[in-house]
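Quick note —
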Amino acid sequence: MNPNRLNLNLSFSLEGIPVQAVNMTCERFLRTIPSHSHGSGSYEIHYIPTGYGKLTADGHIFDIGPNTLFVTGPHVEHAQAPRPQEPMLEYCVYLKIKENARRKEDAPVMDSFTATPFWFGADTQGVHGLMHQLAAELERRPIGYLDQARLLLSQLLIYIVRNYQSARPGHTVPAQSSLTDLTSVIIEEYFLYEYRNLSLEELAKRLGRSPRQTQRLLLEYYGKSYQQKKAEAKMSAAALLLADKSKNMASISEELGYSSPEHFSAAFRGYYGTTPREYRKGL
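Predicted structure written out below.
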């Protein structure tokens, strides 16, 4: 099914720390999600109640199955690929947490959550029920749904941290300069979902900036030029598509926006130093 994207833009606080819930999605994954990361203060909570796939995060590969929970925090590179015969259903909540927020009380839950940039495991706390109820509140909008959504989001963070208690710490990643919530979402989702037809002019238009300003923004925030980000998005998607051996080179090149398999092969070889066919043989 197509992604059911619920734009929240909902603020709440837990232990005196302000949190912005940017959006929530519920999606049956029939496509690959290329490698990407989110900016400072950004966290995605992923829960898979059914289906199978693979997650690549910080150079490690994880098998996704029913009742998988994983959290990807700031600057954690991650990619997802479904199992075509049994694609996964995923709930995903995207949060922004203000860094160095002033507090008047201890914050054990929020400190634990923000100190764990990446976590992967099986849920033991009942996250599925929370996600399902949250999605229902946001879709139906009964009386009091905003207050109920804030309560559910706070409870979700508590459940996440309770899952952490019996697990090893996740990967640590360096902090970098932050963008506004809306700007980072626009940039990250553009490269993530529209890698077939990327355009600097279109991205600049969405950001309300000039192409030159957009180039400077990408260099400052990601340390990469637009062309580097474009190649990274296409080649990350290419690597995931090649793992599905039911897809031929013509269909992969078309899905990535190349005019021919030959042009795709040349771009792939220039990026990875090997041809797509050789890369696939090594999988």
